[in-house]
C-alpha cells in the first residue's frame, strides 16, 4: 500500500481534510504515535496506519492484539473546537462510520454495541478508541480504529471475548487500500455532518443498528453494576436505561446482556 493509491480512492471532502498520511510496517500503537506527534508540535490533520502494532491499545486499558496483516490499525487525528464531553457522541459517530464503511464493502448483518463496538452476529468485528489531546489552546481528537480482517485461530483463542473477522463475513476480501479509503471517506463525511448539526441527526441511525435496544442489559462501570432495559441512545449519545428507579442516562461503562430477570 502507498499513499498515492490511497489518496486516489478518497472523496474530495476526505482528501481535503487530510494533510498527511503515514504508513508504517510496524509500530507500537498508531494512537500512541499520533499523541507523540501532537506533543512534538505536528498538529495537522493526519492519518497513521500500520501493518502491525506491538502495543496496540483497546478501551479500558485492554490490549488490542495486532499481528501483521490480520487487521486494519488506523488513527486519524483531527483538530476540533469541541467541549471534552462531546467525545462520547463522537465515538458513536465513529462506530456508525465504521459500520457503514464495512457494509458498503459487502458485510451484512452488522450491528452496534454502545458505545462503539461493531459486531456481526454478536461477535466483535471492530473496535474504536478515541483519545483527546490538548496542545496550548487547541484540542485534537485521535480516532483509533481497529478492524479484524483475517484472525488466526491462535489470535481468536487469545482474545477473551467472541470475535469475528471480515474474511468470514464477505465473499471476497477488499484490498487494505480500498478498506482504508472506505473508512476514511465515511468518517470524514460523518464528522463533517457532526460538526455542523451535532449528534441529533445520528440518533435514529444509531438506534436502528443497536444490538441491545429494547433488551435487558447490565452495565458494568468499575465496581458498579446497573441492570435495566436499554431504550437506545438520546440526542447526546447517552444510553437510556429503564431501571426500577426510573430512566437513567448512562455516560460510561460496558454493556452486557442481562443474565438476571428484571422485575416488570
Ligand atoms: C476497543 O477496545 O474496542 C478499541 C480498540 C481500538 C484499536 C485501535 S487499532 C488502531 C489504534 N491504535 C491503537 O493502539 N488502538 C487503536
Question: What does it look like?
Answer:
By secondary structure, the chain is α+β, with helices and mostly antiparallel strands. The chain has two domains: 205 residues, BirA Bifunctional Protein, domain 2, CATH 3.30.930; 46 residues, SH3 type barrels (Roll). α4 packs across α6. Biotin (BTN) binds next to α3, β3, β6 and β7.
Q: Based on DSSP secondary structure assignment, what is the total number of beta strands?
A: 12
Ligand identities: biotin
Distance between the termini: 55 Å
Strand order of the largest sheet: 1-2-3-7-6-5-4
The gyration radius over C-alpha positions equals: 18 Å
The percentage of residues in β strands lies in 25-35%
**From the 3D coordinates, which CATH architecture of the largest domain would you assign?**
2-Layer Sandwich
* Integer count of domains: 2
Q: Taking all residues together, what is the mean pLDDT?
A: 93
Top-tier CATH class of the largest domain: Alpha Beta
The stretches of 5 or more residues where confidence is low (pLDDT under 50) are: none
What is the makeup of the main sheet? Answer: 7 strands, mixed
CATH structural fold name of the largest domain: BirA Bifunctional Protein, domain 2
SSE order in H/E notation? HHEHEEHEEEEHHHEEEEE
CATH superfamily of the largest domain: Bira Bifunctional Protein, Domain 2
Shape: globular
Helical residue percent band: 25-40%
What is the overall number of helices?
A: 7
Structural class per helix/strand content? alpha+beta
Amino acid at each position: 500500500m502507498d499513499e498515492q493509491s490511497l489518496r486516489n480512492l478518497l472523496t474530495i471532502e476526505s482528501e481535503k481534510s487530510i494533510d498527511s498520511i503515514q504508513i508504517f510496517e510496524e509500530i507500537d500503537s498508531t494512537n500512541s504515535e499520533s499523541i507523540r506527534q501532537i506533543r512534538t508540535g505536528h498538529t495537522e490533520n493526519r492519518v497513521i496506519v500500520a501493518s502491525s502494532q506491538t502495543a496496540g491499545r483497546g478501551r479500558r486499558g485492554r490490549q488490542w492484539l495486532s499481528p501483521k496483516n490480520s487487521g486494519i490499525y488506523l488513527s486519524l487525528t483531527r483538530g476540533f473546537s469541541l467541549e471534552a464531553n462531546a467525545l462520547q457522541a463522537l465515538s458513536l459517530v465513529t462506530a456508525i462510520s465504521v459500520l457503514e464503511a464495512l457494509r458498503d464493502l459487502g458485510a451484512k448483518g452488522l450491528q452496534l454495541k454502545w458505545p462503539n463496538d461493531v459486531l456481526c452476529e454478536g461477535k466483535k468485528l471492530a473496535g474504536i478508541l478515541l483519545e483527546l489531546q490538548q496542545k496550548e489552546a487547541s484540542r485534537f481528537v485521535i480516532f483509533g480504529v481497529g478492524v479484524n480482517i483475517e484472525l488466526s485461530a491462535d489470535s481468536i483463542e487469545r482474545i477473551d471475548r467472541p470475535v469475528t473477522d471480515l474474511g468470514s463475513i464477505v465473499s471476497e476480501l477488499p484490498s487494505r487500500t480500498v478498506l482504508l479509503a472506505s473508512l476514511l471517506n465515511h468518517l470524514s463525511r460523518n464528522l463533517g455532518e457532526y460538526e455542523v448539526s451535532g449528534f441529533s441527526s445520528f440518533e435514529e441511525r444509531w438506534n436502528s443498528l443497536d444490538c441491545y435496544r429494547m433488551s435487558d442489559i447490565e452495565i458494568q462501570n468499575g465496581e458498579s453494576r446497573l441492570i435495566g432495559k436499554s431504550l437506545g441512545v438520546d440526542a447526546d449519545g447517552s444510553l437510556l436505561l429503564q431501571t426500577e428507579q426510573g430512566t437513567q442516562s448512562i455516560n460510561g461503562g460496558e454493556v452486557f446482556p442481562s443474565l438476571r430477570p428484571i422485575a416488570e
